[in-house]
Amino acid sequence: MSKVDLSSILNKNEYKKRTITGWENGNYLNATICVTEECNLACTYCYMVGKNNFHRMSFDIAKKIVDFLITDPYCTGLTDNLMVDFIGGEPLLEIDLIDKISDYICMSMYLKNHKWFNHFQITFSTNGTLYDTPKVQHFLSKHRKHCGFGFSIDGTKEKHDLTRKTKDGKGSYDLVINGFKRYKEQYGEDISQKSTFSSPDLKYLKDSIIHLWDLGFKDVQSNLVYENVWKEGDAEIFEQQLKDLADYMFESGRYKTHSVAYFDKRRGLPISKMSLHQNRCGAGYKSLAFDCEGNIYPCIRFLDMCDENKKSKVVGNIWTGIDYNALRALCGTTWQAVSNEKCKNCEVGTDCGWCVALNYQENGTLYERTTSICEMHKANVRANKYFWKRYEEITGKTSDRVIEKVLYSQHNSLKYIYFIMSDKAPSFCNYNSKIQTNLQMSEELVQKGLAFCLDNEALPIFLGTAPDCIKDSKKIYFEIDTVKKFNIPERGITVVKSFDSTVSTAIINYILDKSSIKRALNDVKKYYQIGVLRINLFISDLQLWNEYEINEYDYVVNQLADFIADIYSKGNFRFQINILSDRLNMGDDEYRDCAAGINSIALAPNGNFYICPGFYFEGLKWNIGNIDSGVNFTQKDRLFRDRSPMCCDCKAMSCSRCLLNNEITTQELNVPSVQNCKINYIQANAQLKLLQKLKDTMGDNYCFLANNIQKLDYIDYVANMIYKDERAIAKKWMY
């Protein structure tokens, strides 16, 4: 090692300017170094069941680990940031070794001009009992500015001493608090902790979280153990403790300034499609763990000492490097791959905890998920919904949880409730009103509908002018109407059937019928010129269209594709037309339709719920429930695309599939009409044409999500199925 002075390196200006770019998005390699398997405590719930006092890391092995990290192509190629996490046992038992390792890390990266020199952090997972010792403080005098600690403090003295004991059975709270006082003095508000709960101590949860807030932790990180320790009645205790904690937060006002992980806005939402294809923790490719002998593991929980049967999983060592075949298995442990059907279809699955190491240790494979925590997670979700409902009641605002659900939840979750304010409300989609009555939605029904939104974490959309009771509300709502003035234009959608220069909203629903196809192209261009940002095209009389209208529509849609390609090639990406531009912003394997009855339902003035407003206005007799008894729709499964044999394998991924048109024309919700299929054939191939033009004109600057839109080689997928099956001659279906 060079004789360059370490203190001068650590005090260099460029080091002080360390950037945190990428850290918040998880763009870092977590290198966990187990410096000892010894601990000075004997916590009752610890997953490190094989702790011992004879496995300690030597400085020679530690140096080789550092050399491996900063030179191995796999490690350095993963990310631009490095987090070195010292762990045990209790890592501070080996502070002399850690001090030398940290010096070596800094010096080595400086001498190699390594990209991580200004982009690394050192962290500790510690019980805190040794923090105030002279050796730890000496270490901090050199490394504090790139060093962080996570203190394990479980809560109140009674709770902490019950589970975090010394080896002679005494509580460790007083020892930890002595170190914590020094920690808080040095780090101020930038302090972090972790608390853990198991079956025997659930009754202390509320008071413990409050105590941690009182100590100065504003954002408390707390979790349940993943192991199968839960008893009958635990879920109820857990749920009640959390609800009592929520009540305290709102009564004290602490909901404004403090938080706890159990009330995360995403916890318990339906799983997003993206999450199904993600690994929960990144073990093996976002994190690597090193034991005292230089073996490499996907994470710390794969070490021998973390399983009673010593069922470890080694993926390499510092001499021969990473075993990529061993690592490959970790890369595929997505939610979809490890979960059973019940978990994959869980309506409250987001943030449900599972551990890939525990899968391996309990089930013998990475790919069979442990579900011991299932009922506890559901209890957490019920309490979390209670918290966010109280938030809306207290503040009068739409909660971040509802916004998160609307923006990111999977296709199969209820997000919107249409309020049909009167029988004269405008037809805004693929239908015409046949209602002859003049019912108005009563104020009482509006209030019941808003309560339904609150209970179901959905946003209201008012078809017609929004009622006075919500106009001055802080809550998010939308209006769809033909009026020229909206209470909040940014949340309004104007319904038009031709060009109208007086529209005040950025979004319009343009309703096409047989008589307006020819003028639609010019109308769209005019709306673009006056600043409209999005046009949703709908066809109100599709069942009446014949080949003449379909050919006219074909011409208009392809001209619109040329128009959008020209706009986008000039850098104006804000303008959208639903039937064309939406496909550009979807993944190649993603599909999208209106999702009526799934993402949204309609509440009519008669108090009944309908799949969509069209089912009410077309005069169809059946409904899916009412405001007093709730939604009761036994045929909901038929609404999904994968339940339609005509739609599930079709390559038109952004489809104007209309359940109302299906019901009217084929008398089946999941069977599209020939007109519907032909229209979507036109739109799908126009989407492909648009994508190809943009790739040609934008080249390397192409920035849309869609990359490979498939060409439809059939006009009507139903005809295509029959033709391939040789049960009928289908040419007569085509034009």
From TrEMBL:
Residue ranges of every copy of the Radical SAM core domain listed in the record: 34-186
UniProt xrefs under Gene3D superfamilies: Aldolase class I (3.20.20.70)
One Pfam family recorded for the sequence: Radical_SAM
The keyword Metal-binding appears for this protein: yes
GO MF annotations, alphabetized: iron-sulfur cluster binding; metal ion binding; oxidoreductase activity
InterPro entries: 4Fe4S-binding_SPASM_dom, Aldolase_TIM, CXXX_matur, rSAM, rSAM_Cxxx_rpt, rSAM_sf, Sulphatase_maturase_rSAM
This protein's record includes keyword Iron: yes
Assigned keywords, A-Z: Iron, Iron-sulfur, Metal-binding, S-adenosyl-L-methionine
Cofactor(s) for this UniProt protein: [4Fe-4S] cluster
Origin superkingdom: Bacteria
Entries under CDD domains matching the protein: Radical_SAM
Name of the protein this chain belongs to: Radical SAM core domain-containing protein
Organism encoding this protein: Faecalibacterium gallinarum
